[in-house]
UniProtKB/TrEMBL annotation:
This is Ribosomal RNA large subunit methyltransferase H. InterPro entries: Alpha/beta_knot_MTases, RlmH-like, tRNA_m1G_MTases_N. It catalyses: pseudouridine(1915) in 23S rRNA + S-adenosyl-L-methionine = N(3)-methylpseudouridine(1915) in 23S rRNA + S-adenosyl-L-homocysteine + H(+). Specifically methylates the pseudouridine at position 1915 (m3Psi1915) in 23S rRNA. Keywords: Cytoplasm, Methyltransferase, rRNA processing, S-adenosyl-L-methionine, Transferase. Homodimer. Pfam families: SPOUT_MTase (PF02590). Its EC number is 2.1.1.177. It is an enzyme of class 2 (transferase). The keyword Ribonucleoprotein does not apply. Belongs to the RNA methyltransferase RlmH family.
Length: 152
């Protein structure tokens, strides 16, 4: 299975080792590709809607024609077990793509085009922290699918 994650911006050094921790552990379950796209612009120069639309275009260019699951604060709330079932369903198709919004969130364009929208929490996270949480949940999902214990 191939899992692609699209994230605007880049990863801060202080989170790199944590992200690498999950990338390493996920290798036995799936081929993982994280694509960092360009941010939409500077709030001091542009309005937020323009920035969100530019980020959406950058994300859609990176996705191509693939269906994607959007991480969205206003998306569906799922448990880890439900998330694991999503992975298992898409594993049969061979590919799964996730999109994380940038510092300002996501545009309506992305919301409209998403195959599914899920929320990681009612809390708001930075896009970098959302990536780390998503990786952990993907790893947990595979452990659930394989009936393996999960203790870290």
């Amino acid at each position: 299975m191939k899992i692609k994650i699209i994230v605007p911006g880049k990863l801060s050094k202080h989170l790199k080792s944590a992200v690498d921790f999950y990338i390493k552990r996920l290798k036995r379950f799936a081929k993982l590709e994280i694509i960092y796209t360009k941010l939409g612009g500077d709030l001091n120069v542009m309005d937020s809607k323009t920035i969100l639309n530019k980020e959406a275009q950058n994300i859609l260019n990176a996705i191509g024609k693939a269906d994607f699951i959007l991480l969205d604060l206003h998306g569906e709330k799922v448990t880890s077990e439900q998330f694991a079932r999503m992975i298992e369903t898409d594993r049969l198709k061979g590919n799964m793509t996730f999109v994380i919004g940038g510092p300002l969130g996501v545009s309506e364009l992305l919301r409209d085009q998403a195959k599914r929208r899920i929320s990681l929490s009612d809390l708001t996270f930075t896009h970098e922290l959302a990536l780390l949480i998503l990786l952990e949940q993907i790893f947990r999902g595979f452990k659930i699918i394989m009936n393996e214990k999960y203790h870290y």
